[in-house]
Amino acid sequence: MTSKEVIRRARRIRNIRLIRQRGVFMKFGAKIRAYFFTGILVTAPVAITFYMAYKIVMWIDHAVANLIPDQVKIFEPLPFTVPGIGILVLLVGFTLIGMFAAGFMGRFFIKLGEWIVYKVPLISSIYSLLKQVFETFLSKKKQSFNKVVLLEYPRKGLWIIGFVSGDTNGEVKDKLKDKMINVFVPTTPNPTSGFLIFVPKKDVEELDMSVEDALKFVISCGIVTPEPTAKLPKKK
């Protein structure tokens, strides 16, 4: 073996060693990077959730503290801040108001107040709308949205998610021939706004996903995809 061949072989061995060392460092760097992003993925949602909850609790505490007269302040005698005491006071206050409203005198004053409100032109419309919304969302007898559907909109071949709020009734039902359903189509990423459309029941595709999963899907702009719902075997 000549000296040139020895030199070439030595260079080849050195290059192989350098490549292996770089591979080891690259794998180590990839693992560190993966661990870093995993830590963010695990920590960030929890931290942001607790931070937002803390801010909301403190905002309610401050708002409730401003509503309580100085003579009966229950916040100031404490030498330290107790997060959540405002929410506790609010819950107790709502409960006491509900107990009073359930009685004879409470019903009398509520009817009197509604009678006065309904006499004011603009205020009566706002009050009626808000009352219906709260009764719908807080009612135990009926769920606001009971099904999630797919429908073609605004043209054939394009599909959007909608929430079924019930069957179409009243004058709208009398004017239309097919069996129609009320579908609320939310906007992304704010599902509290949207529009109501009346769709033939045969033209929608029902989904197995829950309303909560569909809302997450809409709010995340399609990034958070709901897991497929396992279907129960049919009974023979």
Describe this structure in words.
The chain has 236 residues and is an alpha+beta fold. It has helices at residues 3-67, 85-102, 104-118, 121-138, 171-175, 211-219, and strands at 147-152, 159-167, 180-186, 194-200, 204-207. It is built from 6 helices and 5 strands; from the N terminus they run H-H-H-H-E-E-H-E-E-E-H. It has a 5-stranded antiparallel β-sheet with strand order 4-3-2-1-5, covered by helices on one side. A hairpin with a 7-residue loop joins strand 3 and strand 4 (194-200). The chain is flat, with a radius of gyration of 31 Å. The chain starts with a helix and ends in a 17-residue tail after the last helix. The model has no long low-confidence stretch (mean pLDDT 78).
Output mean pLDDT.
78
**C-alpha-based Rg, rounded:** 31 Å
Strand content: 5-15%
Helix-strand string: HHHHEEHEEEH
**Head-to-tail CA distance between termini:** 83 Å
The gross shape turns out to be flat
Which percent bin holds the helix content? Answer: 55-70%
Low-confidence stretches: none
- What oligomeric assembly is this protein in? single chain
Q: Count of DSSP helices?
A: 6
Please give the order of strands in the largest beta sheet: 4-3-2-1-5
Structural class: alpha+beta
The tally of strands reads 5
Largest sheet, if any?
A: 5 strands, antiparallel
